[in-house]
Amino acid sequence: MLNFFGIHIIRRYIFVLFLLTIFCNLNLFSVNQLSYVEYFKKINEAESFIIKQDYQVSLDIYNELFRDYSNISYQDLNNACICALKSEQYQQALFYAKELILHGYDMDDFNKKPFSDDAYSMVFKEPLLLEYSHYREKYLQGFDQDTRGKIFEWYQQDQLAASDFSIQDSVFLQLSEKISNLIEEKGFPSIFLNKDTMNNKLYVMLRHYCGLENREKKFADNDSAEYISRIHKIMNQALHDGWISPLKYIGITTYWEEKNIYGELAVRIDFDNKKITPFYKNVAQEQIKAINFNRNKIGLPLIDQISEDFINDPRYKNYPFEKITEAILNCDTCETMLQYLTILKEPDSKSQEEDNIEKDYFLLSIETANQVRNTYYSKSELFSTINKRIREKKLKQGNNIEK
To answer: Where are the alpha helices (DSSP H) in 254-380?
Structure first.
């Protein structure tokens, strides 16, 4: 039988083990669970400098980030590589080009601008060609064909169910279970980090299953709502671990939500004052604090940080107000508002070439012109003129019919 001192020693031993367990868990969390939210915030900063054409500053940010983080997307590598080229850091550009090959790029990608510019031929393109086959083969050998095969098979089932409402929810639930089990077993796939044909397929599937969860929230009295939440937790972890970008995360997790808690970016174009203003759709002033809290939590820029990027965005900074106005006023074939709006929504591409807009070579993730889904036009003298011309043409057509 143990005496008092023996029991006391055992209790102290157990207590020490307990403390060691806590310490180890905390230590593991700090080392292995590095959150990528700060990474995304620094990426926003780098892309803001790209918009301002401060390529060396952007490159410095990318270089620092890539030393500290391992889950790097091909979009970020693409941007870093171009920044290196424009900063005449050709060895750095070559290094990032090789990483791009390991993230799915092939020679067709490097045959496009700006990689194909003659100025970079000898210092970039020719040395890259010498090592391309080696890195391309290494990329292809890294494929997990078993996982890819399963995802493709499930995607086909997903698409069949998406067009048949009678089986949609039950099939989505089954596929959600399968893909959750796969991810929990093998980890989140690196598909979103690569330029991969499976990228959009996996995105659509995860979007469907988070959407199903969001719909089920309204009927939380059944078991499925609790079970499907696995997929949402998986997406939270994927964002935390850098397997998916904040914008993709929003696209997936807010599907079928009644309201986007991160705000929906829109832009207002004012022809009278030749002014373009970004804003967030259906967001009252008193809601901005809560929305900014949500945005900051996942690594998106705050709402009040967006305006400067819009002002510096070449496609808006150099918006061809005069050319569009002239095209509208000279459109003899336009008879409806829709036909006039087509001219508004398609600014003269030649004017963009003349302004030497290079931003489209970059794959930006921050909410700039690329992410605008809603464009509004302020009531203006131009629109009054359009309405007047439509009425005049209708009246003229009516008079011709009577004759």
So the answer is: 288-298, 303-312, 314-317, 321-329, 337-345, 349-354
pLDDT in tens, 110-122: 999 999 999 999 9
Structure tokens at 145: 């064909």
Q: Look up the pTM and report it.
A: 0.78
Rounded to whole angstroms, how far apart are CA atoms 102 and 137? Answer: 9
- Contact 215/10 with Cβ under 8 angstroms? no
Measured in degrees and rounded to the nearest 5, phi and psi for residue 106 equal -125, -175
- Give the span between the Cα atoms of 76 and 50, in whole angstroms: 12
Separation CA 111–CA 226 (nearest Å): 49
Which single residue is written with the structure tokens 């203003």? 277
Q: Summarize pLDDT for 62-72 with one digit per residue, the tens.
A: 999 999 999 99
Residue 35, CA distances (Å) to 26, 70, 301 in order: 14, 12, 17
Q: What share of the chain is helix, strand, coil (3-state, %, to 5)?
A: 70, 5, 25
- In this structure, are strands 275-281 and 264-270 parallel, antiparallel, or unpaired? antiparallel
The set of residues, in sequence order, having a beta carbon less than 8 Å from that of 258 and lying 6+ positions away, is none
Cβ neighbours for 292, distance < 8 A, ≥ 6 positions apart: 302, 303, 304
Alpha carbon separation from 103 to 19, 179, 364 (Å, rounded): 42, 23, 17
Q: What token pair was written down for 254?
A: 């807010």
Rounded to a whole number of angstroms, the distance between the first and last alpha carbons of the chain is 119
What is the average pLDDT value for the chain, to the nearest integer?
Answer: 83
Write down the pLDDT at residue 196.
Answer: 95
Residue with tokens 């690196």: 190
Residue 26 confidence class, pLDDT cut points 50, 70, 90: very low
Buried b (16+ CB within 10 A) or exposed e, 230-269: bbbebbebbbbbbbbbbbbbbbbbbbeeeebebbbbbbeb
Dihedrals phi, psi of 142, to nearest 5 degrees: -85, 0
Residue 363 tokens read as 């794959």
Two tokens, residue 144? 């997990």
